[in-house]
Amino acid sequence: MISPYTAGEAFALGCTSVIAIAIRLNMVQLALFSYSVLLGLFVGEIISLYILAVPLWLARSWIDDSQMTFKAYTRQDKLNYLRRFEEIVSSLSPRCVHCYELYSGSRRLALLRYLFHNNSCSTCDFRSQDQAFRPQLVTIIGTTYVVVSGGLEPKTLIGLFQLWLLIAIAFISVRQHLVPNVLTYPLLWGNLLASAFGLAVPIESAVIGAVVGYMGQWLILIISRFTIKQELVGYGSFMAGAAIGAMLGWEQGCLAIAFAYILKLGENMVRYRKLLGPTQLVPLGHWLVMSALSIGMLHG
Ligand SMILES: [Zn+2]
Q: How many angstroms does the Cα of residue 127 sit away from the middle of ligand 1?
């Protein structure tokens, strides 16, 4: 049990904070607040499913590749992976990973499944360890913050688009030690487009930010490869750096990326008592996301 609260206490705490917030906000803001919580719940569910599906999806492509080259996996392995992949992703419905039964009722949403059912399956009683409620909770809080602070403006939509992609990047980075291009490309292109239409940082700053965010980290890789014979960073973080550079502009983008490296070195010091852990500076994506979000929030 990670949470020190029981489900009932957590629910009471949630209700109290909603009432406290309601007193401080007027009715329009209250409506905006409620809708953004619902939006966060819905999008958070999709993000948490997507995060669960990524390893299966990667396994599927690895199996496809390895079958072509080594014929290493049995047909049954492949069928098992395919079955889980199709079941979880294609229906966009969460299932018990033990008995494959569809979750129903309030078990359908990751956060409610965690709060009220202890992540257990109603059919086989298996307790899932997937912690899918975490990205959902972060999405709800972030969505509410962006909508309530931004109001009904085009910039709020852009902010939500950035936030949702960044949340998925952070959680996949921690779980899988990689940052999928399928998330960083839309973030990069979306940010460049927003700048081109004058809805974000100036386009010059965004383009320079994208180049510097990528090339700066690429230089770190090249230098570390030739000096200490280790590859300190992964290619996924280059693309994440480019997307963040385009999002914040080159000055704040560089600051965010540098800050992320400092945080990662700090994490390694705390966990391994040395600057480079067993996987060097990987995963880095969650620190990139956290520093980008904090710097983005500080500057509106
Ligand atoms: Zn089950």
A: 8
159 domain-assigned = no
Enclosing H/E stretch for 271: helix 250-272
Q: Is there a single domain that holds both residue 225 and residue 110?
A: no
Let me know whether 168 and 272 are in one domain: yes
Q: Are 145 and 1 in a shared domain?
A: yes
Task: Give residue 98 CA to ligand 1 midpoint distance, Å.
Answer: 5
Give the domain range for residue 278: 164-300
Q: From ligand 1's centre to the CA of 99, what distance in Å?
A: 4
CB 104 within 8 A of CB 8: no
- What whole-number distance in Å separates Cα of residue 297 and Cα of residue 11? 28
Same domain, 89 and 202: no
CA of 40 to the centre of ligand 1 (A): 27
Q: Do 84 and 137 share a domain, yes or no?
A: yes
Ion ligand 1 neighbours (CB, 5 A) are 96, 98-99, 101, 121, 123-124, 126
Domain-embedded: residue 60:
yes
Q: How far away, in angstroms, is 181 Cα from ligand 1 center?
A: 33
Instruction: Give 217-253 pLDDT, tens digit per residue.
Output: 999 999 988 998 887 888 889 999 999 999 999 999 9
CB atoms within 10 A of CB 181: 13
| Ligand 1 center from residue 11 Cα (angstroms) | 25
* pLDDT tens, the chain, 300 aa long: 444 556 677 777 777 777 777 666 677 778 888 899 999 999 998 898 888 777 777 776 776 666 655 555 566 666 666 666 666 565 567 778 788 788 888 888 888 888 999 888 888 988 887 788 899 999 999 999 999 888 888 889 999 999 999 999 999 998 888 888 889 999 999 999 999 999 999 999 999 999 999 999 999 999 988 998 887 888 889 999 999 999 999 999 999 999 999 998 898 888 888 888 777 877 888 999 999 999 888 876
Ligand 1 center from residue 125 Cα (angstroms): 6
- CA of residue 87 to ligand 1 center, whole Å: 14
Our count of domains for the chain comes to 2
Do 179 and 173 contact (CB within 8 A), yes or no? yes
| Residue 199 neighbours by CB under 8 Å, 6+ apart | 154, 155, 158
CA distance 282 to 210: 21
